[in-house]
Amino acid sequence: MILPKMYHVQHEFDGFEIKNLAEEIEKKIKALSVLTHGIKAGQTVAVACSSRGIAEHATIVGATVKCLKEAGLKPFIMPAMGSHGGGTAAGQRSVLKKAGITEEKMGVPIHSSMDTVEIGQTEDQIPVFLDKQAAAADWIVPVNRIKSHTMFNGKTESGLIKMLSVGLGKRDGPDVYHKSAFNFGLEHVLQTVAQVVMQYKSVLFGVGVVENAYCRPAKIGVFESAQLDLEEAKYLIESKALEPQLPLEDIDVLIVDEMGKDISGAGIDCNVIGRLDMPLLGENPTSPNIKRIIVRDLTEKSEGNAIGLGLADIITERLFNKIDREAMNVNALTASDPEHVKIPMTMVNDAEAIFAATSTIGMTPLEELKIVWIKNTKTLDKMIVSKPCVAVLSKLPGIIIDSEPFEVEFDDEDNMGTLT
């Protein structure tokens, strides 16, 4: 027996979602006072876009671009994703295309380049870099999801401030900023770099989205430059309240169908698995406690960048064979993060990976192990668990045990299916 009998479980979260997303964005942008004074017809606007797997990403960017054009401005779209996409202009354009953001659909040019200019220094003498095309534009409009960062807790974490610093710094900026984080702290570096960027180049407004636990847009904010930092901090609090977590504190084996850059900046969300494994930045989270983590595959949208691999204990050859070492290493070097690209034990198939995990955690019999199987660390509303987990989960609110016990099937190559 590879796995004991398992149970389907549903975890119900707050499912509120914005229904008329484009209309909501357009209404908020058109209400901005900055669009009625302070701009001139024909001015150029760099609309900065993320590499993250944002729900309705193309809809959000498209509505933003439409409003800018209607105001008489000349927007263009640009990737603001640091070293992602293999650290190349073509790679970053490809990331946008996979999100549905193309020149044909958006009706404006996409300018993708890795060229930067040094625009000044922070109070700690950290040099600040800005995408050359953004530096030449009249305005910048960052568009990003607001959520927890995988490496630190702070007033603002992953969102518009980070995009203005790391994202728009292309490869040159993050390379310096992540090194500086070991001396000054990552939150402080991102905040002070973003201040220099905003002093050098006017931010017209920022568009921030908060997603619910089902990865759907729950709230959209449009912030004028002077309020951007304060408003993002408020939205981060709301985002944290909605972010899904594993409902168990102690897990023997966690099976993860897929990891990837479109799921988390760290490939696997450190806040979900309770692992950071970057001793130079800080200690691991205290919860949950997971003895063994198996990751089975890499998402297509990651384009071979498997950063976060080092957070797993065991992977499959299926995942290993999809790794683009160059793309992954560029990201790791830029982020000063060699820990997260260590190659774990690699097994031929799922059955061998599960055996390796269950046979290296002590003498507990298989049927007594707490085993949890999830799609990825962003999708936690459905999971498959072993019987010892059911005893705990059945007492929790929002948990539905959705099946009788069943045996997990393996194909002729000893691989399982995937959760949907």
Folded structure, characterized:
With 420 residues, the protein is α/β, with parallel strands linked by helices. The chain has 2 domains: 6-13 and 245-401, no CATH class; 32-242, 3-Layer(aba) Sandwich (Rossmann fold), CATH 3.40.50.11440. The protein is 30% helix and 20% strand. The strands form 3 sheets. An 8-stranded mixed beta sheet has the order 12-11-10-9-13-14-1-15, with helices on both faces. Helix 1 packs parallel to helix 2. The longest helix is centred in the middle third of the chain and has 15 residues, at 186-200.
Keywords:
single chain, 420 residues, alpha/beta, Rossmann fold, 2 domains, five-stranded mixed beta sheet, 14 helices, 20% strand, globular
Number of strands: 15
Q: Strand sequence of the main sheet, in spatial order?
A: 12-11-10-9-13-14-1-15
Encode the helix/strand succession as letters: EHEHEHHEEHEHHHEEHEHEEHHEHEEHE
The helix fraction, in percent, is 25-40%
| Beta-strand percent range | 15-25%
Total helical elements:
14
According to CATH, the fold-level topology of the largest domain is Rossmann fold
Nearest-angstrom radius of gyration? 22 Å
Q: Pick out the low-confidence regions.
A: none
What is the domain tally?
2
Question: What is the overall silhouette?
Answer: globular
**SSE-based structural type:** alpha/beta
User: Which CATH C-level class of the largest domain is it?
Assistant: Alpha Beta
Determine the N-to-C terminus distance. Answer: 24 Å
* CATH architecture identity of the largest domain: 3-Layer(aba) Sandwich
